Amino acid sequence: MDTSSLALKGTQTTSKSTCDYEDWEDLKDLFSKAVEQYEGNDASDALPLIRGVIHECHRFLLFYQDPSVLFSIPHNIPGHSPEALTPPDERQPRDWTVERSTEPIDKAFPNCKCVEPPTAFHAIFGTALFLFGNLVAQDPSVALEGEPDSPSQYWLAALDVFETGENLPTRTSGHGRLLIHLRKLP
Prior knowledge:
186 residues, 9 helices
């Protein structure tokens, strides 16, 4: 993991040709360690870990416009593919119908505890940006060359990430939240 400046291109960013479910699990572990360190005695010790989380989130976004496809759709999760044994001629109509897309995922895998909400990636990324902004607010010198030394830039970026997560097509059925609210108006 490259934890150099957020503003400079890292060496780890291009070392893999894609991100997979294992990378998602690694990102969650890294984020967990970063938050644990942040909540410890000296929050500045978490700086390299938070920087690493932001780098990894950026790497995910290089490969996926919506990284939630890695973990919110069961067939992308290793060992969870009920369609693998279904003949293609039976599978195709079911896969492309509207009913399938509105059916809750937990019906397909009632014992699966690994399917996460589509906003999980954006929650991690936004929180990492927010925490990084907090550290910059405490000591602007922690920002490396090329990184903003104003916490408000990180906080605003975090808000953008959270808003993006809330407006994912999987959460809004392909319509932005504003359109959904406008449709409810008389």
